[in-house]
Amino acid sequence: MRIYTFPILTIGCIGLIIYLLIDFKRNQFKNLFHRVLFYSFILYLIVVSHLTIGAIFIPPQTSNITLQFIPFNFIGDLYSESVRGTWFLLNSIKLYVYNLILLFPLGVYLGILFQVKRVQKAVIIVLYTSLTIEILQPILSSFGFIFNRSFDVDDLILNTLGGGLGFLAWLGISKIKSFKKIRDRILVKN
Fold first, then answer.
1. 52, 133 in Cβ contact below 8 A?
2. Are strands 151-152 and 67-68 parallel, antiparallel or unpaired?
3. Which of 63, 51, 129 is nearest to 95 (CA)?
4. What gap in Å lies between CA 22 and CA 49, rounded to an integer?
5. Which of 23, 27, 34, 138 is deepest in the core (most CB within 10 A)?
């Protein structure tokens, strides 16, 4: 039996290009800067989907799932990986840093594109986004549509922290006087 894989990045980019062509034909240069910012957000969502899901398998394949509900388990993992050697430790650190920065841009987009003003609201949105990702991974994996993905509460914590830091970075940058003119130009919708 032949197995077909459909990479999320490829499917998403094809869809985005079709959307761009239709949108540009309808609106041409009207609100171009704001629209380009929105396009970049859609591309970011496609990349996040690709990084967290990968490819869809048709027909579904046998896949393993794991569930990790112990908060801050990664600290113990870092210790055990350091005992195994430098390469294992650095690889673990790299994975945790990737989880930290995965939703950092979402925090920035919440401030700049969606004009969220409160840190609590931004953190809740990022938390729900991360929770959606973490829940979809084992569900799609258990049905065999994606390969060996799991729910990890540490990913949820690190993703939320990263998105919150992204929003705080946006708040800090947006308060700089010289940046306020640029920010106001970005947020203006004609």
1. yes
2. parallel
3. 51
4. 23
5. 138
C-alpha span between 151 and 138 (Å, rounded): 6
pTM of model > 0.90:
no
pLDDT per residue of the chain (190 residues) written in tens, 0 to 9: 688 888 899 999 999 999 999 999 999 888 888 899 999 999 999 999 999 998 888 888 887 778 899 998 888 887 787 777 777 778 888 989 999 999 999 999 999 999 999 999 999 999 999 999 999 999 998 888 888 888 999 999 999 999 999 999 999 988 887 676 666 666 655 4
Distance separating the N- and C-terminal Cα atoms of the chain? 54
The 3-class secondary structure across the chain, one letter per residue, is CCCEEEEHHHHHHHHHHHHHHHHHHHHCCCCHHHHHHHHHHHHHHHHHHHHHHCEEEECCCCCCCCEECCCCHHHHHHHHHHHHCHHHHHHHHHHHHHHHHHCHHHHHHHHHCCCCCCHHHHHHHHHHHHHHHHHHHHHHHHCCCCCCCCEEHHHHHHHHHHHHHHHHHHHHHHCCHHHHHHHHHHHCCC
Instruction: Please name the amino acid found at residue 92.
Output: S
